[in-house]
Amino acid sequence: MGQRTETTPTSASLEGRRIGTASLVFMIIAASAPLTVVAGGVPSNVAVTGLFGIPLSFLVLGVVLILFAIGYAAMSRHVHNAGAFFAYIAKGLGKPAGVGAALTALVAYNAMQIGIVGMFGFVLSSILDALFGLTVPWAVCALIAWAVVGLMGIARVDFSAKVLGVIVTAEFLVVIVFDLIGLVQSPEGVTADGLLPDQLFAPGIGAALAFSIAAFMGFESGAIYNEEVKDPTRTAGRATIVAVSLIAGFYALSAWAMVVGVGPSQVIGQSQELGPDLMFAFLADHAPVWFVDLANLLFLTSLLAALVAFHNIVARYFFALGRDRVLPTFLARTSRRSGAPVAGSLTQSGLAFVVLLIFAIAGIGSTDPLFPVVTLFTWLTNMGAFGLVLLMGLTALAVIGFLRTRRDEYSTWTRIIAPGIAALGLFALFVAIVANFDVLIGASEPTVLSWLLPAIVLVPGLAGTLWALTLRRRDPHLYAGIGSGGSLG
């Protein structure tokens, strides 16, 4: 038993007391990439669904996620673990479900991070060609992001927070300028188009909500940093609710400004014709050239910020699972200099490099400049959203399971009603994603990818559940410690 204690990394911890509420809000918002959502996500959603009501979709989802965040924030006061979904589901629904959730989360978050690398490679390659006439393959550009993110991943977490804070602030300013120009121009007048219920609650709403939820991915990461915040009992919960409120309101406003600025009668056609270039084409007609160039560059840094945010999330999941010995224990190693989960960071970088290399080889000879966007980015980010929405639904149930015995501390609203409504909404959204998965990956009809990509996310979760059940029988000591790292009970 003595040897077991020496080799078990249950005492491993991340460097604490470095992140305040404001910094954590920036880190959460960075994962959602504000400029990327407004410039790329909104017109793509409008183009595919043909609905005006995309601005309203952000408010609807915001309400569901704030309800989720109420119970999530309450539970975060008691569970301080870098593997948030893993620990929450393990404590609320049982350790087998927790381990299954952890492996699904690892695949989903890796998919989000690696998929965004493809978009970054395409955008940087396009910018270099447009501004300097340089022809640089997208894969080479993607490797630049890969290297920068890898270096930031092993640095002090507060350094990453400061960099992301600058980037996110700049993104907000650019989008705010776009919003103001759109509302001032308003060729058909300032109307409520985009916010009216019948413009969203119509055929295609499932696809619209499935697209829009991607804008919120990463908001749940507040609890992942709970071992590193200045006040573990309050910071994560407060930052999560603030971030969700800001994201929902800001995206709804900006999407509405796009509808008004382009014109309700034109926005669907323009979105289908220009796609992610719609915002930049609009700015080119109404703003100085230098501002348009700045917006393009910030679109690139927006992607970089999201890459760093998701990389940090994955690294901490690896750390948490290594610490609990669900995965190899070396993953729990941290840097003595920076306190960062260096083994988890390097592992995520290694996985990203392998997947990037596979897609780079597959794209050799392709004449489609959008190859990394329609394959690497589209396939993997939708895989990620698929898995994470499922995990949020399970976490909402886990909150009910965990808080049910704490009647003296929390109201019925916090313990049952809010997370219960959130669970219903999230599972309904998960069904919508499943039903519209062909549309989300750009397929006109069911293909092999329609079941293969979701299976890549779900199968590891099933395997993790079976692995936990095996551990319960073979190694009760190890099983008892699953999900306990960093917990205060």
Order of helices and strands: HHHHHHHHHHHHHHHHHHH
State the assembly state of the protein chains: single chain
Q: What CATH architecture would you give?
A: Up-down Bundle
What is the assigned CATH homologous superfamily? Answer: Amino acid/polyamine transporter I
The stretches of 5 or more residues where confidence is low (pLDDT under 50) are: 1-11
CATH class: Mainly Alpha
Compute the number of strand runs: 0
Cα distance, first to last residue?
24 Å
Question: How is this structure best summarized?
Answer:
With 489 residues, the chain is mostly helical.
Question: What report would you give on this structure?
Answer:
Helices cover 72% and strands 0% of the residues. The chain is globular and about 65 Å long. It has one domain (21-479): Amino acid/polyamine transporter I (Up-down Bundle), CATH 1.20.1740. The protein has 19 helices and no strands. It has helices spanning 2-7, 21-32, 34-49, 54-76, 84-93, 95-132, 138-153, 157-185, 205-213, 235-262, 267-274, 278-286, 289-323, 342-362, 371-403, 412-435, 437-440, 448-474, 476-480. It is mostly helical and 489 residues long. Pfam families: AA_permease_2. It comes from Brevibacterium casei S18. Keywords: Cell membrane, Membrane, Transmembrane, Transmembrane helix.
Q: Which key features would you list for this structure?
A:
single chain; 489 residues; mainly alpha; Amino acid/polyamine transporter I; 72% helix; globular; disordered N terminus; transmembrane helix; AA/rel_permease1; membrane
